[in-house]
Design goal:
The structure is a homodimer. The first copy, chain A, folds into three domains: 20-145, 2-Layer Sandwich (Chitobiase, domain 2); 151-529, TIM Barrel; 537-705, no CATH class. Chain A is built from 26 helices and 18 strands. An eight-stranded parallel β-barrel of chain A has the order 8-9-11-12-13-14-15-16, surrounded by five helices. In chain A, helix 7 (277-293) crosses helix 10 and helix 23 runs antiparallel to helix 24 (643-663). The longest helix of chain A is centred in the C-terminal third of the chain and has 25 residues, at 612-636. In chain A, 52% of the residues are buried.
Chain lengths: 709, 709
């Protein structure tokens, strides 16, 4: 599948890696006479994106091109870029995004069936930009590329912390840079309803606190996404997660109570009453309005985390269920879903739902039994329309069950970037988890009740899906739930880790080298920043706010080793609400710190290093931690908001002192060894929702000194 | 005027400084039970701004308040903030913005006649935030404050580089933080027309290249400004600077030619034909539309830099002038202005124009003579309507002539922040330059033909304006012309220097201590960043783009000493256009570098320092420059876009070597002294539109070593 030229020791600095590529030793030099011409059938999108590419090239190289405007009259000249496009691509599922890209010394050729393919090619080309003492060039390459999955999405939720237009736009720019093609725009939940409604204006008037997109803004967002070849899918989460709707229109509720917007995070009881016709009259108008705003053929109706409690509390609803033979809440929800899907069908839309809309509620033992027996029809609700697309968030089994029962599906389990897990975990999560060479990550913590079964089968070489069934899996979606992020921090929760997910969904499945992924991710991360993402630059800004001064490098020296606690640990403390300050250490620290990865590498090489200079440098680093702590304590003493950072800094100093002592003591007693091991263990306990990530590399460093302990 | 308590050695960290204040040693401690209540007559603006204050307080302190939502039911409790407001302020010139603020240990009281006054008070209060080991508090203070001038503006031009909504919003937030109250929104010029027009849609369709504010966006901006007590004044520059209009509607032009949008910067000939009735029919519809979008009572009609050449080229226009006895282009322009003002009057608007609309074109000697004789009526055009407001951009004399002839005026000369001059210069420029204790800066470079006359008169103690005339001067406006800035760099051209202008326009004229201004500006600068301004954080980002890697600290070490060349030097190189990369060293370097000011201080103290540790530190710093250069050259060698920074780094290393040599040689010969003076002279020559600002402090440092040379 790959053509390699032996002289290249590593993969090119591309992310996602193309399906097929070969590099060569030529390069196309860039002068201020560089030109871009477009041939074939292209509309304004292609010209506009080519112009944007040209401008970005100018910004990065500092070359003064006479113009970066690409028009139908722009001529090709030797050493320039020629783009050949057959037709304008449609923003529909499965549209052709393939392209060919050839870079040789005499010029560059992009060939694509659609302009969307050419737009993808431009991102690849910009990543091939290099320089040397003589100037700038594009690296010689021959690329044939196409995505593995047609659905490569990112969900952004608007109800918890509202993300204004500039956040959405810069996210779309960054998505395009890593070839993602679906923005899942999550509109409604217990905390707010975030787009204007002309048919039910109380939705935005009462249930948004002024934080919503107008119709014009929704169109502006969609046009911006369209420009980059990105579809936008709306979600109105129903029938649970609907407090905002019920606050505005309480007559739709299953239970009479005083509804008010939720300020807390979690799963709440308020649920739309699915037994009343007025519910469907309301939803008919509302969903028709939303459907008309979002031109995409898909529409997400939610369906997750309906507690069903409000339904059971209402005798009329219980009677309705009995009368219709709807034995479970899920059966009632399926009735509701079918009605809603009917409305959407009228609007020409295909519905998507979270996996609850398909999967039966079964006891673990029963479910496992069916799964082991591959009795997949028993795992799902009967009578769910076959055109409902399933978004799997609770586990792989929903994906497999969907495919085995003839449903299309999208994977999100494993791509929950709000859980601040490492990119490697997301990267190794594959939507098609049954190939012999593709094993899902075996971290027990991340496996649900079914996934150990899946692994067992995979290890036995059992193929769970046929080739046809495999095609039912459309791709995946990273989910940026915004409970614990604000417009200031969201970028550092999305990027750069989502680039690893983008590669998983675009590149061939065999590309799974984690170390190489990180190498390329660190490069692309910096480039994403040029598009406006704040994931790097806001770290220092947030520290400056807490310190109330410009000079914060001593704080940065600590925070670079801190990572926020993973998973939902933060949610388990109930004091977080919409009013909490998301400006603190746990918001400043980012997952997957580069400094931690670098340190791990550095420390792991210490043991085998014969070079005493190298060893000296490691000891020097430990001494710097000690010195740095002095500066931190000075700065932090009168500033309570820095107390947690100061506490981690104290630990860092203590660990450094200990480390220096151990490294300089060739013959420690076992009791001493136990002592430093205990200290490391203590230092691993989170403070302020953050873990000090030097502990593990340091433990390994010291253990190498005492390999038998 | 000031009440000082002796224990406070310096001014409080406030900017602008209040009109009257006293500090005390109490403080109001902030707990999570902090509350805000509002009494009197306030509408949603007051509640919303109080809520925003509360949220910002939470973000900076990390305190988990149960809520930061302030509503009419919010109750005061001891230690909280009580706001008393008599009425909702109007966004009109001269509205009451005064307030009283008392902070004592038992709580805080804000009293204001209008909510706008209370909003100003909230910004002062937030600047009084402090902390110690025991927690956060507001400093005890007793403040009675009101602005000196009613017009404290910032102009942002949209035609050159378009500034999208997020730039405007964060600028409005920062303006509010330093109590500015006018955004001058400059819509139209030779390079583009930047708002939607429903009456003449070609304006945005043809003449914006898609970069414009829709009507909805204009309203969004105005609502955002209104929320912060900021007026928004539109400018449609007429009859020159009108290529964009003539490109869309060439029948309005004075000369038939192929009009196209300008990509270059400068003054161009295309001018609207003021002799045709169709011009006024067009302007009637257009200005009525724009006037209806911007609710403010003032409307700017431009009037600057009309070359008049196209008028002279057109025999019909020449004939028109002759027939009407309009002897000069200026007379014709005044005819045009009166027609345009008639249209605006119908819309209920008062017109503003740049000083060309009033000042006669006179030979220098004649003008100077009139000025010396205080024959001010001869300096202006006759028959200019008295209700035209003059914006003085070419010199103080327009301000004085306006006031002496009964015209209201606004000063911008001296506040041209696009010229990247130091804040001290802007700070010392006073719109009322005739007080004995207020001398305009005597930097010859910044004086025009009249200003030396003004200084001469001031020195003689001559009062140029009576108290009544003085009141005709409404205030001033910083002008952010956007030829050489983009959305990435505009913040660093506006902030923090504009905070110094804001203080000049708000605070009493006696507050003129430049060192203290810089001390406070550096503090406020960091706080402005919390509102979204990128003036600090984008420096590193821009360097990362050029370096294409994350680690750029060695580059920052050089750039912190670089300042872009002042004035219009950059314009004089004709290769700058809309397509130029504004991502280079001169865009990354900022005016008035803090590091340069710190260095100057440090070096100046070297000579008198008896402390050898101190001297050692200075020499250590010079050695760091040498070491740093090694890192810079390594990094920059294969990256052409870093060549200019590398060149400055080379200089820095050479200067450091030389400095170390001189400092360690107690008895240099005169020839050697001449040698290093020559080297310093050479190092002062700009490279890449930047000056290495260590030269002057270093020269002083070395000169102190050899005081006789």
């Amino acid at each position: 599948m790959f053509t390699w030229i032996g002289v290249f020791a590593q993969t090119p600095d591309l992310m996602p890696l193309p399906a097929k590529y070969s590099l060569n030793t030529t390069s196309c030099r860039i002068t201020n006479r560089f030109s871009i011409s477009i041939q074939g059938n292209a509309d304004s999108r292609m010209y506009s994106e080519a112009s944007r590419f040209f401008q970005r090239l100018s910004e990065r190289t500092g070359i003064f091109f006479p113009t970066w405007r690409v028009t139908p009259t722009s001529k090709y000249s030797s050493g320039g870029l020629q783009i050949q496009v057959l037709r304008t691509g449609q923003l529909v599922l499965g549209e052709d995004e393939s392209y060919q890209l050839q870079v040789v010394d005499s010029g560059i050729l992009i060939k694509a069936n659609t302009d969307i393919g050419a737009i993808r090619a431009l991102e690849t080309l910009l990543q091939l930009l290099g320089s040397d003492t003589k100037g700038y060039f594009f690296r010689g390459a021959n690329i044939e590329d196409a995505p593995r999955f047609p659905w490569r999405g990112l969900l952004i939720s608007q109800p918890y912390h509202f993300m204004p237009m500039d956040v959405i736009k810069r996210t779309l720019d960054a998505m395009a840079a890593v070839k993602m093609n679906v923005l899942h725009f999550y509109i409604s939940d217990d905390q707010g309803y975030r787009i204007e409604s002309k048919v039910y204006p109380k939705l935005h008037e009462m249930a948004s606190e002024g934080q919503y997109f107008t119709h014009a803004q929704v169109k502006e967002m969609i046009a911006y996404a369209h420009q980059r070849g990105i579809r936008v899918i709306p979600e109105v989460d129903l029938p649970g997660h609907s407090t905002a709707i019920l606050y505005a229109y309480p007559h739709l509720a299953s239970i009479k109570r005083d509804y008010t917007l939720q300020d807390h995070w979690g799963v709440f009881d308020p649920t739309i009453d699915p037994t009343k016709e007025r519910t469907y009259i309301f939803l008919d108008s509302l969903l028709t309005e939303v459907a008309s705003l979002f031109p995409d053929a898909y529409f997400h109706i939610g369906g997750d985390e309906n507690t069903g409690r409000d339904w059971q509390r209402n005798p009329d609803i219980r009677k309705f269920m009995k009368d219709r033979g709807l034995a479970t809440n899920l059966a009632l929800q399926n009735y509701f879903n079918r009605r809603v899907m009917g409305i959407l069908k009228k609007c020409g839309k295909t519905a998507i739902g979270w996996d609850e809309v398909l999967m039966r509620e079964l006891d673990d033992s029963v479910a496992k039994k069916y799964f082991e027996e591959e009795n997949f029809s028993k795992l799902i609700e009967p009578n769910v329309p076959k055109d409902l697309v399933i978004q799997s968030w609770r586990g792989m089994e929903a994906l497999i069950s969907s495919a085995r029962n003839g449903y299309k599906s999208i994977l999100s389990k494993g791509y929950y970037i709000d859980l601040v897990q490492p990119a490697s975990y997301h990267y190794l999560t594959d939507p098609v988890p049954y190939r012999n060479d593709v094993i899902i990550p075996d971290s027990e913590a991340n496996l649900n009740r079914f996934e150990s079964e899946i692994i067992k089968k995979l290890k036995k070489g059992i193929r769970l899906l046929s080739e046809e069934q495999e095609k039912m899996i459309l791709g995946g979606e990273a989910t940026m739930w915004t409970e614990h992020v604000t417009a200031e921090t969201i970028d550092s929760r999305i990027w750069p880790r989502t680039a690893a997910i983008a590669e998983r969904l675009w590149s061939p499945p065999q590309i799974r080298d984690v170390a190489d992924m990180y190498r390329r991710m660190d490069i692309i991360s910096v480039q994403l920043e040029f598009l406006g993402s704040t994931h790097i630059k806001n770290t220092a800004m947030l520290l400056r706010r807490l310190a109330n001064q410009q000079e914060v490098s001593c704080l940065q020296s600590v925070v670079q080793y801190l990572e926020p606690v993973q998973g939902y640990q933060r949610n388990q403390q109930n004091n977080f609400t919409r009013f909490s300050p998301y400006t603190l250490m746990a918001d400043i620290a980012v997952p997957d710190q580069k400094a931690v990865r670098d340190l791990t590498k550095r420390f792991s090489e210490y043991a085998k290093a014969k070079d005493t200079v190298w060893k000296k440098e490691v000891r020097q680093l430990l001494r710097e931690w000690i010195d740095n702590d002095y500066a931190v304590q000075q700065l932090a003493a009168p500033i309570p908001a820095l107390a947690d950072i100061a506490a981690h800094s104290t630990r860092l100093r203590a660990l450094a002192s200990m480390g220096l002592e151990v490294l300089s003591s060739p013959n420690l007693k076992a009791t001493n060894i136990g002592d430093w091991q205990k200290k490391l263990q203590d230092a691993a306990i989170p403070i302020g929702h953050c873990e000090l990530k030097v502990v593990e590399p340091l433990r390994k460093l010291l253990s190498n000194q005492y390999p038998n302990n």
